[in-house]
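Re: the request from the purification team.
They wanted to know what the chain is likely to look like in 3D before they choose a buffer screen. I agreed to run a prediction and write the result into the notebook, where they can find it.
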Amino acid sequence: MISPFASSRMSRFPRIDCTPCGSEKPKGYQTYEEGFSQDGHKVSEVGYWAHARRKFVESENSALLESQEAVARIRALYQIEESIKGLHSAGKLAARFRDPVPLLKNLKAWLEKVKARSLPKSRLMEAVNYTLNQWDALVAYTTNGDCAIDNNTAERAREARGGQ
């Protein structure tokens, strides 16, 4: 992912699409929503599994077994991404259809079962709800070989230049 650089999050900066897959955009901050809307073009949301994984790590104190199971399932997705790192876009897309898509289907079914038996205000339920609410965005990377499973590389680069 390539992110536009601005020293501020104010909306006065130009609207641009600078993502190689043409579909990634930041979520949840109104200025980003406006800045990445494209006249006449739909910009799709791509979620980041690092954010979902973080929610489960944070829930370990309230539901250790379920949290660890979720993290292990998400780790399996990352292991697949590591194994296809050097492939071109079409190769990644084929591998993603073959490998993570079935895992994602099972993960979603498991999350729905966990949701049915968890306390509604628990940290685990917060993690489960976040993941299920973001599901379409989280699985979007499997439909485009140029998209990433997360934005960790971009975030590390931003932090290296002072967190801007």
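For the purification team: DSSP finds eight helices and no strands in the chain.
Please add any questions underneath this entry.
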